[in-house]
Design goal:
heterodimer; A: Immunoglobulin-like; 2 domains; five-stranded mixed β-sheet; 7 helices; 16% strand; B: 237 residues; mainly alpha; Rna Polymerase Sigma Factor, Chain: A; Arc Repressor Mutant, subunit A; 0% strand; globular
Chain lengths: 261, 237
């Protein structure tokens, strides 16, 4: 999920953990496979936001079918109390511009996209899971910390590592989506393998913090969220460990340096 | 740069001779690969170094950092330390361990002042094993204040050193996320303890502890046996 327009790719279904049917079994297998969540997979669906989202966007997983989108406050039992909903006709773009919403800082909000069932079909299309996200707005205290942190980093950070420092600061405040966006936006510039490894470790760390928050706060969030975050952490750790153990790899040797001169 | 005595390191001659003898024994052990020899050297010199840096810069946290960095750098470069050339007639001459430490401390201080005056920089670059090959402390001091950007070879070397730092940091990060954050923000981003504490919503003392743990982890990283000839100074288990 991305309320700010990031695409949602290979979203792990939130409804697939408990019922023992074949579809859910496949979904569970997907969730358990770290490689399923590759670097292009960026479903940022559990995050704090600095301000209310203006737009929701997602991976077009509904295959052009009509779908229903729902956004509301998250109840204690995990149910969504609808605040706003809309039906998107078949073939619509996978995004939804939101009207100005009065959201309370600190409260947990949820949104969900469900593909409409085909006429005459009792069962829903088996390969179309619902997409689901959770977010909350920063409270005043954390917003002040964010402003202070930005000020500190603006003065002191060396440009080469600025995005990673920013990401670490944002993740401390629960702004996971923004943190990952900073790192991924900058990944094209980290051409040196060593720097890319630092990026992977930082991403693993951000997902680790997400898991810790999910475990600590016991919010009404489906277990698949934590599983997804653990998988993402494992993916980036594996990337870092594999490349770190293989040595400098394609980094230039001393002779290559002389050639470059 | 001539080795002017660092305040806090000068002793009466007899005491100095005894201390130099003891140091030499520990240094020889350390050079032979016995890491337990570092502990007594650390205990003996850390407080003096801390006091020296405190007097010079007036910031206890930075002084703690610099004292630790000085000793870590000295240990990392132990193979290049030519203590065996010390003359018996002049035990407190330029080749004693305390003089060697003094030279590194002055280098650290100069570098600290330079980076405060110019820009944040990568603080533990000179703990890198590659520099152990470069030899004497004087060579390190000569690097002080050099404008790496003006010299392409230096710029490349700096980049290579930065890569080494990143590999070491990744090694630490896979074990301890808190040390990773503290090291990255302090050394690669040049942030002082207080500002890191604000960013991470913790106390400066906690940041200091995490940095110390991180430095120990870095030291362990560099002390591991080197694998492969082409590893460019990287050490892997």
């Amino acid at each position: 999920m991305s309320p700010h327009g990031r695409s949602l790719r290979r979203y792990p279904v939130a409804c697939s953990v408990t019922p023992p049917d074949p579809i859910c079994g496949k979904a569970r297998a997907d969730l358990a496979a770290p490689e399923h969540f590759g670097p292009r997979s960026l479903p940022l669906f559990y995050t704090a936001l600095e301000r209310p989202p203006e737009r929701l966007a997602w991976e077009p997983g509904t295959h052009g079918r009509a779908s229903r989108i729902l956004l509301g406050a998250c109840e204690g039992d995990g149910e969504i109390r609808p605040m706003i909903a809309t039906d998107l006709p078949a073939g619509s773009a996978p995004s939804w511009s939101l009207p100005g919403l009065a959201l309370m800082p600190g409260l947990l909000y949820a949104w969900r996209i469900e593909a409409e069932r085909e006429e005459g079909s009792d069962a829903g299309p088996p390969s179309l899971p619902c997409l689901e996200g959770r977010f909350w707005l920063l409270d005043a205290g954390k917003a002040a910390r964010l402003a202070q942190g930005r000020q500190i980093l603006a003065q002191s950070t060396e440009p080469e590592f600025a995005p990673i420092a920013q990401a670490l600061m944002l993740a401390e405040l629960g702004l996971y989506q923004e943190a990952l966006r900073h790192i991924q936006k900058d990944s094209g510039r980290r051409v040196r393998p060593a720097h890319a490894l630092v990026g992977h470790v930082t991403q693993a760390l951000i997902y680790r913090q997400m898991v810790q928050l999910l475990e600590r706060e016991a919010r009404p969030v489906p277990p698949a969220f934590a599983l997804w975050a653990r998988n993402r952490e494992a993916f980036h750790r594996k990337q870092a460990e594999a490349r770190s153990a293989s040595g400098p790899g394609d980094s230039p040797s001393g002779a290559a340096f002389l050639d470059m001169l | 740069m001539t080795a002017a005595p660092v305040a806090g390191f000068s002793r009466p001659e007899a005491t100095s001779r005894l201390a130099a003898d003891r140091d030499r024994a520990y240094v020889e052990q350390a050079r032979a690969g016995d890491q337990t020899a570092f502990a007594p050297l650390w205990e003996r010199y850390w407080r003096n170094l801390f006091a020296y840096f405190c007097r010079q810069i007036g910031d206890r946290e930075e002084a703690e950092d610099l004292a630790s960095e000085t000793l870590l750098a000295a240990f990392a470069q132990m193979p290049a330390f030519r203590g065996q050339n010390a003359s018996p007639e002049r035990p407190a001459s330029g080749a004693t361990f305390s003089t060697y430490l003094g030279a590194i401390a002055r280098h650290k201080l100069a570098r600290y002042r330079w980076r405060r005056a110019h820009r944040p920089y990568c603080g533990f670059a000179d703990m890198l094993p590659g520099q152990a090959q470069s030899g004497e402390a004087a060579a390190l001091e000569e690097r002080c204040g050099a404008d790496v950007e003006a010299d392409p070879l230096r710029a490349l070397l700096r980049q290579e050193h930065l890569d080494e730092v990143c590999y070491a940091l990744v090694d630490v990060g896979l074990r301890s996320s808190e040390s990773f954050k503290a090291l990255l923000l302090h050394y690669l981003c040049g942030l002082p303890h207080k500002e890191i504490a604000r960013l991470l919503d913790t106390r400066p003392e906690t940041v200091n502890t995490r940095l110390q743990e991180g430095r120990r982890a870095l030291l362990r990283h560099y002390r591991r046996p080197q694998s492969g000839e082409g590893a460019s100074g990287r050490r892997r288990a």
